[in-house]
Every structure is written in structure tokens, then in C-alpha cells.
Write a structure and sequence with these properties.
Blueprint lengths: L2 H4 L4 E6 L2 H17 L3 E8 L13 E2 L2 E9 L3 H11 L4 E6 L14 H7 L3 E6 L2 H5 L6 H9 L3 E5 L4 H13 L4 E9 L4 H14 L9 E8 L2 H9 L4 E5 L5 H7 L2 H8 L4 E5 L3 H17 L5 H15 L3 H20 L2 H10 L2 H14 L2 H25 L10 H5 L5 H19 L7 H8 L2 H13 L2 H29 L7 H49 L6 E10 L5 E9 L5 H15 L3 E9 L14
Parallel strand pairs: 1-2, 1-5, 2-4, 5-6, 7-8, 7-10, 8-9, 10-11, 13-14
Antiparallel strand pairs: 3-4, 6-11, 12-13
Helix pairs in contact: 2-6, 3-4, 9-11, 13-16, 14-15, 14-17, 14-21, 16-17, 16-22, 16-23, 17-21, 19-20, 19-22, 21-22, 22-23, 23-24
């Protein structure tokens, strides 16, 4: 919204829900509306749609007309958002008491839906205890006194659009005030960070280059929030641009505007620029996805945490069940029996420990992470050892199809593991769907790959063991990462302490790197597998098409090997009633090579065959 649009009859909406919010919001709203030749609409949402008795205000606030609207609604946030969509104002003011949102919410379950859905500029004014203590109705004189006290306004700026909006509104709010745009450079980054800060402030303040009321300021600090709060002590109002970070970003780095607004000793206004109708629609879609999962309150989160903690602890029962599950899986692999392998998946307790990895990262809980890692490592070593021991029972046997299928992981296996991790975390968090956990355990398939590793080592099949170990690593990383994302979505998050956020950051980056490495490896293997499958289809088609050149023969089997050069070697076995003409074999070889477009070597094995006509059995003797 341009300055010209803002100043042509702007409408500023002030949403109030409590007596203590009215005066500070009305003071800001009237000042902004007066600077834009506009008017103020005070919106109140009550369960019955009746105007509350405390909603008493002057008919005019200076030269600004004030109107009152009352809406009925059980959820104020939803009712306010609906009013904004039906008749969007130019700006919206909300009150916030400084309580930091927990888990999924930034400022709380009432304010967040409005922030996400509002198509207009939004300002959140932090309400102080002194504001809430006011009992008498607002007066024009007291509102004017509030604004006259503002002489110095501080706006932290790092180049985002919200900072520019905060500067513009600060100039409108207090026409005599000095506005300082602040950039906090990390001391550890040295002079380069200071130079970067000056350049960013120059770009941000370019529209006010000739305005003596706006000045830049770069300070150095070990912590950005501490630097802002220290400078705020020398100002009368702190105007903060809201963060555009996602839920994951806030958990990774903390939400700086929220922390500043909650901890500042100076009055605070948090501002977010309007996204317009299209941008608002996109935000609503994102918010709808955010709200799609059910909410998990604090007591439920504590219960979920304890359940997962108990399941992840490596006690005697854990080791016994891992050993039995590995033995069952190894026998199922040796017998090539999917039913037996599924039984092993159902009794294996390793899934809880893997899910605990994701929860430990999201909570920033180093202790839970240590317990989960210890359980996973010890359980994996035990399962491999049991598989190695069970390989003695299959001594001399060739690898079965079930073994080989677990030695060739692909990107599809990664997708299955991601879905399984998300389903497992959700099922553990929602008692209503906990019956789905056995199915999740079957889909996750953690123990059979470990048993395959042991069997492969015992049989001397190192390639098979390596492939199965890669499948287990894929499942481990993907399940814990997807599970952690679901926990984050459900409201779990690290505490504000820096050490817990550091654990979270390290865990997220570690999981992202491991997922990236595994995806690259699986992608390469998948491409190689697709290339081999395409070659096999081409060879099969060429053999079937040119088999007639060999005469009356029946194809038994064939194998193809690619040499280091472009040449192929085809080893083929056929049934024939007579000898195959060498000229016919040479013609077959040439035609197959022509169809494949590559040199082809041929080893042709013939199985002599006699076809006897049916005869009647001899008549029985009397």
C-alpha cells in the first residue's frame, strides 16, 4: 500500500477484547488514522453479540471519527479474521499481553489466525500491567498525553519489508519523534558485519534519505536480542517488524521479534505488512495445513514424552525382544517366507527408539537423544549378531529372494520410510489411532534389514550385507526425521534456552545432511537399477525377435553382463532336438547386436532334447 493510498480516507480497525486493551490501542489507532485523514473502527467480539459495558470511548479522538462494531462469536480470532475478509481495513490493531506462544503458536491461538489471514497491515501492541490496571473510560486528554510522551522510537531493521513499514508508521504515530533504525551486528563476525549493517540500513532508509527525523545506527553485540534490548532502554517506543520465518525456522533460530517484544522494558508494537488478497489467500492455505492436525496440549505432550521415553530405554525386555525378533526375521529370510518376516516386524521394539530420536531433536533434549542413540546402536548390533549366528543354519544355501530384495534399496524405500516415520509419530501422539502402530511397524521394517546384514556376513555375501545396511540407515534417518517433523507440527518445540536450541539446530542440520547423502546414494542406485532394467528389457525383446535364426529351439534362460567397454556378453541356454547351425548362431548374434546397437558376445549352450509322441499304455494282461 503506497503512502498516497494510506492517506486517502484510511480506515484503521482496533480489535479489543478487554478493558485494559482499549486505551493503548485507541491511542495508536487514532494517531495513525489522523495522519492518514482516516477514521477508527473499534471491533469487539462477544459470545452474544452485545456491546460490553466497559466499551466506553470518546465520540472523537482529536479530529478522528470513532465508530464501534460488535460481532458475535465464540472464537474471537476467527470472528476478527472473517470481518477482515468481508470488509478489509487499511490497518488492524491488536493487543497482546506479552505471553509467548507455546509450541505451534507464535503469539497465541487467538492472535495467530488473525496474523496469518489478515489482508491488511497488522500492528500488535504489547499491553502492560499499567494499562490493564486502568479502570476509568478513555479520554481524549489521556490519549493525547500518551502520544506526547513518545520522543524517541527505535526500529530494528535487517532489510525486511516489515521494518520499512514500521519506520513509516513510527513517523505517522508521533510527528515530533526521532526514529532510529537499528542494525545489530554480531561481534564475532568482526568489521565485515558492521559494514554489511550500514549497507542494509542505507538500502532500507533510502525513501527517507532527506528526512532529518530518521537516522541509522549500527551496534555490535554477542546476541542480537540483547543488543536490541540494551538500545531500547534509551527510547520511548520499540517498533518491531514481525518475522517471516516458518515454524521450523522459528524453532531453529528462535523468533527474534517475539523475544524482543516479550522481554523489552520499553513499550512495544509489532507490525506486519499486508499481503493483499492473493497473499492472504496463500497464507490461509498455509495456515489451513498448519491447523489440519489436532492440537496437543501441555499435559498431553508430557504424557507422550513419558511414553516415548519409556519405550526408548534399553532395558532387559528391550534386548530380549530385539533378539527374538532378529531370530524370527533371519529364519523367515532363510525360508523365503514373507509371513514369518512380518511376524518379526510386529514383535521388534526398535521403532520406539527410532521415533525417540526425532522427539529428542525437536525438544532439544540431549538426554533423550543419548538414550535413544544408545538403544538404537545396541539393538542394531544385537540384531546383526543374531543374524550372523542364524547364518550357520543356512550354511551352504544361496541367498533367497527375500534377502536380495533388502539388499537393493531405492528412492521408493526412502519414501516408504518417510511416510512410516510420520505415521508412527502421529500414532504415538494420538491414542485414538494407536491401533495403527502394528501396521506402521510392518511398513518401517527395521529388523529384517539388520538380520539380512548378519546373514550376508555369515554367507560371505558382503555386497548383500552392505545393501541391507544401507536400507537400515535409510529407514533410521527417514523415520526419525519425518517423526520429528510431525512432533514439531503437533506443538513440540525446544525450550527458549540456547543450549536446547543448539541441540535442535545440530539435530536438524545433521538429519538434513544425512537425508541428502542417502538420497544421492539411493538416486544413483535407482538410476543404475533402471538402466539395468531397461537393458534387460531390450535384450529380452531382441532374443525373442531373433530366436528363429537358431532354428527349432526353445529358450531356457539367459544372462547378460556389461563389460567395461560398450560390449555386452550374452550367456544363453536353449533346448534343441538337433545341433544348431554355426551360421545360424552367428546370424542370431549379429541381429541381436544390431537391435541393441552395441557389440554382443555370445555363449550359446544347447540342451539336447527329444520329443516323443504320446503312446497308449500296454493292455493289461489277463
Amino acid at each position: 500500500m503506497s503512502d498516497e493510498q494510506e492517506r486517502s480516507g484510511s480506515r484503521v480497525m482496533v480489535a479489543v477484547g478487554e478493558r485494559g486493551h482499549l486505551e493503548p490501542l485507541l491511542a495508536v489507532g487514532c494517531a495513525l488514522a489522523g495522519a492518514r485523514d482516516g477514521r477508527v473502527v473499534v471491533l469487539s467480539v462477544t459470545p452474544d453479540g452485545q456491546r460490553p459495558s466497559w466499551l466506553t470511548l470518546p465520540e472523537r479522538c482529536g479530529e478522528v471519527e470513532v465508530e464501534v462494531q460488535v460481532r458475535a462469536g465464540a472464537k474471537p480470532g476467527v470472528a476478527i479474521a472473517r470481518s477482515l475478509l468481508l470488509d478489509p481495513p487499511d490497518a488492524l490493531l491488536l493487543g497482546w499481553e506479552g505471553d509467548a506462544g507455546r509450541g505451534r503458536y507464535l503469539l497465541g491461538s487467538t492472535l495467530d489466525p488473525v496474523l496469518q489471514r489478515a489482508p491488511c497491515d497488522v500492528m500488535v501492541v504489547r499491553i502492560t500491567p499499567e494499562d490493564e490496571a486502568l479502570g476509568e473510560p478513555s479520554s481524549t486528554e489521556r490519549l493525547a498525553k500518551r502520544l506526547a510522551a513518545i520522543k524517541r522510537i527505535l526500529v530494528p531493521a535487517a532489510g525486511g519489508p516489515n521494518a520499512a513499514l514500521a519506520i513509516r508508521q513510527g513517523l505517522d504515530l508521533a510527528p515530533e519523534a526521532q526514529v532510529t533504525a537499528l542494525y545489530v551486528a554480531r561481534r564475532s563476525l568482526g568489521p565485515g558485519a558492521v559494514a554489511l549493517g550500514r549497507e542494509r540500513l542505507r538500502q532500507t532508509l533510502e525513501p527517507w534519505a532527506d528526512n532529518e527525523r530518521v537516522r541509522p545506527l549500527v551496534v555490535q553485540s554477542d546476541d542480537i536480542v540483547a543488543g536490541i534490548l540494551q538500545e531500547a532502554k534509551r527510547h520511548d517506543l520499540l517498533y518491531v517488524g514481525a518475522s517471516e520465518e516458518s515454524l521450523v525456522g522459528r524453532a531453529l533460530f528462535g523468533n527474534i521479534p517475539q523475544r524482543v517484544a516479550a522481554e523489552s522494558p520499553t513499550p512495544v508494537i509489532v507490525v506486519r505488512h499486508g499481503a493483499g488478497r492473493v497473499g492472504s489467500l496463500l497464507r490461509q492455505v498455509r495456515w489451513g495445513l498448519f491447523e489440519a492436525l489436532p492440537k496437543v496440549d501441555v499435559s498431553e505432550r508430557a504424557e507422550i514424552y513419558l511414553d516415548i521415553w519409556r519405550g526408548a530405554r534399553p532395558r532387559v525386555d528391550f534386548y530380549v525382544m530385539i533378539g527374538l525378533a532378529a531370530a524370527i526375521a533371519a529364519l523367515g529370510l532363510l525360508l523365503n517366507s514373507p509371513a514369518v518376516i512380518i511376524g518379526a516386524m510386529l514383535v521388534a521394539p526398535l521403532m520406539a527408539a527410532v521415533i525417540a530420536l526425532g522427539l529428542g531433536v525437536v525438544q532439544g533434549d540431549a538426554r533423550l537423544l543419548r538414550v535413544a542413540i544408545r538403544s538404537v546402536v545396541r539393538g542394531a548390533v544385537l540384531a546383526i549378531a543374531v543374524g550372523l549366528l542364524m547364518s550357520l543354519a543356512g550354511s551352504g544355501r544361496a541367498p533367497t529372494a527375500e534377502m536380495l530384495s533388502r539388499a537393493q534399496p531405492s528412492l521408493l524405500d526412502l519414501a516408504v520410510a518417510l511416510a512410516s516415520g510420520a505415521a508412527g509419530a502421529y500414532a504415538l501422539s494420538r491414542k485414538d489411532v494407536s491401533a495403527s502402530l502394528p501396521g506402521v511397524a510392518i511398513a518401517a521394517a527395521l529388523v529384517p534389514p539388520l538380520a539380512t546384514v548378519g546373514l550376508g556376513l555369515g554367507m560371505g555375501q558382503l555386497a548383500m550385507a552392505g545393501g541391507a545396511l544401507l536400507l537400515f540407515a535409510t529407514n533410521l534417518v527417514a523415520i526419525s526425521a519425518a517423526g520429528g517433523l510431525i512432533f514439531l507440527w503437533l506443538g513440540f518445540a525446544p525450550e527458549p534456552e540456547e543450549n536446547k536450541r543448539q541441540v535442535f539446530r545440530s539435530g536438524v542440520w545433521g538429519a538434513a545432511i544425512l537425508l541428502g547423502v542417502i538420497s544421492i546414494i539411493l538416486g544413483w542406485l535407482s538410476v543404475d537399477s533402471l538402466r539395468a532394467a531397461k537393458l534387460d528389457r531390450g535384450v529380452q525383446a531382441a532374443i525373442v525377435a531373433e530366436l528363429g535364426a537358431l532354428g527349432e529351439v526353445e529358450l531356457v534362460s539367459w544372462e547378460v553382463e556389461a563389460a567395461e567397454s560398450a560390449a555386452l556378453h550374452l550367456d544363453m541356454t536353449v533346448k534343441s532336438a538337433g545341433e544348431i547351425d554355426p551360421a545360424g548362431a552367428a546370424a542370431f548374434q549379429r541381429e541381436v547386436a544390431a537391435r541393441l546397437g552395441r557389440p554382443v558376445g555370445l555363449t550359446l549352450s544347447t540342451v539336447p532334447t527329444q520329443h516323443l509322441a504320446p503312446v497308449l499304455p500296454p493292455a493289461p494282461r489277463p
